Structure formats: C-alpha cells, structure tokens
UniProtKB/TrEMBL annotation:
UniProt keyword Signal, yes or no: yes
Gene source species: Pseudoduganella umbonata
Protein's recorded name: Photosystem II stability/assembly factor-like uncharacterized protein
Signal peptide: 1-33
Any one cellular-component term (Gene Ontology): photosystem II
Record keywords, A-Z: Photosynthesis, Photosystem II, Signal
Single GO BP term: photosynthesis
InterPro entries attached to this UniProt entry: PSII_CF48-like_dom (IPR028203), WD40/YVTN_repeat-like_dom_sf (IPR015943)
Length: 368
C-alpha cells in the first residue's frame, strides 16, 4: 500500500491549493475511526441555508465544470453555481438551496443536470441549471446507510461511524448513464445509485469491492463499462452499468484524481506526481510528458483530451508512443480543479482564481 506519509503529503498539497475542498484534505480512510466528529449544527446550517448572491462569484474558488450545447455550468465554494451561454465570456449566478461547497456538476440533457458536494448534497436542475432542488444530503444518507446495514452486516460499522460523525461526508464525483440512472461517490468509499432520476437513492457500497472504504475521487464510464478511481491506487471496474464493481490491480499506489474515456477506446487515469496511465482493456501503460505535479483535472474536446495539474499547467494528452505536450499559456499559472471544452475548442478552467476561458487559438501550440 502507499506509505502513509505519501498519502498525507498528497492530501496536504491538495488542501493548500484547494482549501475549500474538504475531501482533498481528508485523512486516509483507514484512519476514519480516529477522526473527530464535525459540528452537526454547523453542517445542518449550511445544508439549509441558500447560497448568497455574490457580485464576485466568478472569481471565487470553483471546483467543477460541465458543458452541453451552448450552456456551461461551474460550481464551487459556498454553494455557488454559475451559468454561461456565450462560451464562458460572461457568467451569472443560479439559485441554489444550500451553501455547502459543491465539488462536481454534470449535464445529462440540455435541461437536466446534477451537482454534488459537501454534506452529502445531491442537487438536481430541470431548467438547465438556473434553479436547483436538493434531492439528498448527509442526513438522508445516514438514514439510507442505517436501513442498508440492517440487511448487510458489513455496512454496520460504516453506518455507525457516519451516524456518529454527522452529515458531513463529501461526495466527489458523479456519472449519469441517462436521465434516470446515475451514481455518486466520495469520501470513505461512500457510493449511491438512483434508477429513477434521483427521486430515490440506494447505498451501493455492498456491490463495490472496497473493504477499506478508500475515498473515491473520480468516476468514468463508456457505455456500461464504469470505473471508480481514488486514494492509494484504488481502481474498481463494472461491466454491468455500475451495478457491481470488482477491484482492479492498479499500476501504481498513488492516488488518482481524474479519469476519462479516451477517443481511441482506452481509459485514462491520472493523479499524484504527474502519473498518468492508459487502460487498453487488458492492462495499463504509462503515459509520459507530465511534470511531477499532481494531475487534477481532464476534459475531452474537439481537439482531443486535455489534462491540468495543481501547478496550473495545461497539457495535450499524449499516447504510449508520444509524450504529452504542455500548452503555453499567456496568463500566469494557477491551480486548476476542473476543465471543460466548448464546441469551438475553447477551454473553460475552474480553480482557485474562479472560472475563466482559454481561447482555442492559444491551444494550437505546445511545448515538445
């Protein structure tokens, strides 16, 4: 297993760069029983308090991005959700019923989108992200765990720990196969599934090979093939649309922060110290060309796959035969948490400086 000191160094780095992302500075899952419970009243307050309208919202810490058609959505600290209909040139704030930090967002149709975050929050929009309704939070997750543990003794310890800590555990990534079937996952291996568009949710932990409750940072899927990726090299694969996951031996023991299907049919996994690997259906091959800095985000666009790291470097993803190429940017680098590409090839960037846009023309070149 990855040495504990390496886990702590990686978590500390994430914490410094994205200090509003609680999950990035989570203690290793193995130490869960030694953590102090969060203040339940404090968590409840931000779960029930709507996000405040903020004139500087575009410049706050933003952690998640997605785009479909002409609309882009960005999410971040204090429940901020921003919308853009002009390729990221201008942004406006949406109405959100919580003020917890939001970590990820996904469109499913031009009208339907889901967002997740701290406090086990799952939000749903049916108007393209303009307004949001809470479908689930940590309080509901505790009840779901309690119910599931009655029929599954393996979940009992997890249910007790979550109940003792309160509704504080963050969700970190999500994937929807269609407008009804979706998965969310996050801290301590917590995973839930919906089959009815989020009207109801069920605990998925019993169907996932993750006995140590390792944090899940990324979900990636192509058709029914679905992957979970997380701390200490954790990888698990499903071939039945995310209903059952079997652990896969990883090519290294460092934490993964991003995963994505590749145009060539492979699957990309990237994380600590610039490590990136491609799964070809049979095994892994390492991808070269990245600085020894944690790769934190990826996106697919009309010009291929891009990756970003915590130092603010942007790369064109390479192949086993061709190293990645760093894109020379005119703006000073800043830590990047999420990427999204527009249909025109521009790239939207979210991070500690808020959300911004990189013109496609700037992406044409690249350092060898």
């Amino acid at each position: 297993m990855e040495p504990g000191s390496a886990v702590r160094r990686g978590a500390a780095l994430m914490g410094r760069l994205f200090n509003t992302l609680l999950a990035a500075c989570l203690v290793p899952a193995a130490a869960m029983a030694n953590t102090a419970p969060a203040t339940v009243a404090g968590v409840n307050a931000v779960l029930d308090r709507p996000a405040v309208q903020d004139r500087q919202a575009q410049h706050r810490v933003m952690l998640g991005l997605d785009r479909l058609g002409g609309r882009a959505i960005a999410v971040g600290e204090r429940g901020l959700v921003l919308l853009s209909d002009d390729g990221g040139r201008k942004w406006r704030q949406a109405q959100v019923p919580v003020s917890v930090t939001l970590t990820a967002v996904r469109f499913v149709t031009p009208q339907q989108a889901w967002a997740i975050g701290h406090g086990g929050v799952v939000l749903h929009s049916v108007d393209g992200g303009a307004t949001w309704r809470r479908q689930l939070d940590g309080r509901g997750i505790i009840r779901l765990l309690d119910t599931a543990a009655r029929d599954n003794e393996a979940l009992a310890a997890t249910a007790r720990q979550f109940a003792a800590d309160g509704p504080d555990k963050p969700l970190l990534d999500l994937h929807f196969f269609d407008a009804r079937r979706g998965i969310v996952a996050g801290a301590y291996g917590l995973a839930l599934r919906t089959e009815d568009g989020g009207a109801t949710w069920a605990v998925l932990n019993h169907a996932i090979d993750n006995p140590d409750g390792l944090h899940v940072y990324a979900i990636a899927a192509r058709g029914d093939e679905t992957w979970l990726a997380g701390e200490q090299g954790y990888l698990a694969r499903s071939v039945d649309g995310g209903r059952n996951f079997t652990r896969v031996q990883a090519p290294y023991k460092g934490t993964w922060f991003t995963a994505r299907p590749l145009p060539d049919g492979g699957m990309l996994f990237a994380g600590l110290r610039g490590n990136a690997f491609r799964w070809d259906g049979q095994g892994f091959e390492q991808l070269a060309g990245y600085a020894p800095v944690s790769l934190s985000a990826s996106a697919s666009g009309p010009r291929g796959v891009l990756l970003a790291d915590q130092a603010g470097h942007l790369y064109r993803a390479g192949t086993a035969q061709q190293p990645a190429r760093m894109v020379k940017l005119a703006t000073p680098p800043a830590p990047i948490a999420a990427l999204a590409a527009t249909a025109e090839g521009d790239v939207l960037v979210a991070g500690v400086r808020g959300v911004s846009r990189i013109d496609a023309a700037m992406l044409e070149g690249g350092a060898p």
